[in-house]
Amino acid sequence: METYEKILVLNNEFEASLIEEVLTDHNIPHGIVTSDDTALGGIMEMELGWGYVEAPERFRDEILGIYDEITKQ
User: Fold this and answer.
1) What per-residue confidence (pLDDT) applies to 37?
2) Mean pLDDT (whole number) for 19-36
3) Is residue 53 a contact partner of residue 23, using CB atoms and an 8 Å limit?
4) Average pLDDT value for the chain
5) Cα dihedral sign for 40, 3, 24, 62?
6) At what angle do helices 13-25 and 60-72 cross, to 10 degrees?
7) Are strands 31-34 and 51-55 parallel, antiparallel or unpaired?
8) Predicted local confidence at residue 50, as pLDDT
9) What is the CATH number of the domain that holds 19?
10) Domain that residue 24 falls in
11) CA-based, 20 to 30 A from 67: which of 29, 38, 59, 60?
12) Distance between CA 43 and CA 3 in Å, rounded?
């Protein structure tokens, strides 16, 4: 099993939903991790972003390219 690394910080749930759909369509192994922390009232989200994409390092360039395409639209 490959180790997953933090690849990309996401700004909101909308971005997360879009990139997750595209990564799944491209059969790129990944995980979406949120910074949601209800106990601290959202402070972690303000500091760390909404969440991030984690995936094997070998997919980094492809994921970043996909993200660039998504955010240009």
Assistant:
1) 55
2) 93
3) yes
4) 86
5) positive
6) 120
7) antiparallel
8) 84
9) 3.30.70
10) 5-72
11) 38
12) 28
Size of the chain in residues = 73
pTM equals 0.80
Token reading at 50: 């909404």
Residues 63 and 7: beta-carbon distance below 8 Å? yes
| Coil/strand/helix, residue 56 | coil
- Alpha-carbon torsion 50, 11, 32, 4, what sign? negative
CA atoms within 13 A on the CB side of 20: 14
Q: In this structure, what token pair is assigned to residue 10?
A: 């996401």
d(C-alpha 61, C-alpha 57), whole Å: 9
What is the three-class DSSP state of 53? strand
Tally of domains in the chain: 1
d(CA 36, CA 27): 26
